[in-house]
Automatic annotation (TrEMBL):
Organism: Balaenoptera physalus
Protein biosynthesis among keywords: no
Residues annotated as transmembrane: 52-69, 144-172, 208-232
One GO cellular component, as annotated: Golgi membrane
UniProt keyword Cell membrane present: yes
Record's catalysed reaction(s): L-cysteinyl-[protein] + hexadecanoyl-CoA = S-hexadecanoyl-L-cysteinyl-[protein] + CoA
EC annotation from Swiss-Prot or TrEMBL: 2.3.1.225
Full protein name: Palmitoyltransferase
Key words of the record: Acyltransferase, Cell membrane, Endoplasmic reticulum, Golgi apparatus, Lipoprotein, Membrane, Palmitate, Transferase, Transmembrane, Transmembrane helix
Length: 293
């Protein structure tokens, strides 16, 4: 129990506001999908497998959401400090040897960082995610990536279903063949702008939902691609950010104080694409333990 003491204390100290907000937003989106789109799509004889896909993704997403929230990301304690010190090499730049955490009073292993939110040092620290109310580190990064993947897929699936429903509705009603009289009394053929206005006035909640999930899909998809890039190159968000700052120190257009000593970040932990991805699912500390045995 002593080894998990800091982890349990961090769980007690963290704020669950964003977790609750996350679940409320997700519940509102799925309620609207069920109330508005699901029934109407059934009337248009959409495939049930197609319509149930967002619910399947929701179930999988909630599983990985819970794992991301509750899994220990790799809390460094007195009990495992020596083990973590032997996992990664020190690059003597971003991660110098023999550094101590002033808060935890522990030697800082390479690629670790103290999280001010959780008040603990985390092995292979990536970032603190307010949406899962937990640090993302070596032991839960795989769950976080699957959580992000399924969340993106569910938003994109809803966007596709909503779009197909609206297009199908326009095609069935032959709305695109209709004409209307404009403000000047001229007969006009229905165009795309008119169709969008008509759909917004007739199905405002569905159009709003579609706009929301499209924007959400784009934002989540962009972030997912960034996370996959970091995984493929064996970097963490913390390392990428600090490396980007170090690179900017060499930029002639940025003014730095004389005391600032620019350091070039070198990623010494990348071992090739497949080895880097394997490290996400098989954390280096677990590999080291087996090798040691």
């Amino acid at each position: 129990m002593r080894a998990f003491g800091p982890h349990l204390k961090a769980l007690e100290d963290r704020n669950h506001t964003f977790v609750i907000l996350h679940l409320i937003l997700q519940g509102m989106v799925y309620t609207e999908y069920t109330w508005e789109i699901f029934g109407l799509c059934q009337e248009l004889e959409f495939s049930l497998n197609y319509l149930f896909l967002p619910y399947l993704l929701l179930i999988v997403n909630l599983v990985f959401f819970a794992l991301s929230c509750e899994t220990n990301p790799g809390t460094i304690t007195k009990a495992n400090e020596l083990l973590f010190l032997q996992v990664y090499e020190f690059d003597e730049g971003m991660f110098p040897k023999n550094m101590r955490c002033s808060t935890c009073d522990l030697r800082k292993p390479a690629r670790s960082k103290h999280c001010s939110v959780c008040n603990r040092c985390v092995h292979r620290f990536d970032h603190h995610c307010v949406w899962v109310n937990n640090c993302i580190g070596a032991w839960n990064i795989r769950y976080f990536l699957f959580y992000l993947l399924t969340l993106t897929a569910s938003a994109a699936t809803m966007a596709v279903v909503s779009t197909v429903f609206l297009v199908q509705l326009v095609m069935v009603s032959d709305l695109y063949l209709e004409t209307y009289v404009d403000d000047f009394g001229h007969l006009q053929v229905v165009d795309t702008v008119f169709v969008i206005q008509y759909l917004f006035l007739t199905f405002p909640r569905i159009v709003f939902l579609l706009g929301f999930v499209v924007v959400l899909s784009f934002l989540l998809g962009s972030y997912l691609c960034f996370c996959l890039y970091l995984a493929a190159t064996n970097q963490t968000t913390n390392e990428w950010y600090r490396g980007a700052r170090a690179w900017c120190q060499h930029c002639p257009h940025v003014a730095w104080t004389p005391s600032a000593e620019p350091q070039v970040y070198r990623n010494i932990h990348s071992r090739g694409l497949w080895s880097n991805l394997r490290e996400i699912f098989l954390p280096a500390v677990a590999h080291y333990e087996r090798k040691k045995k």
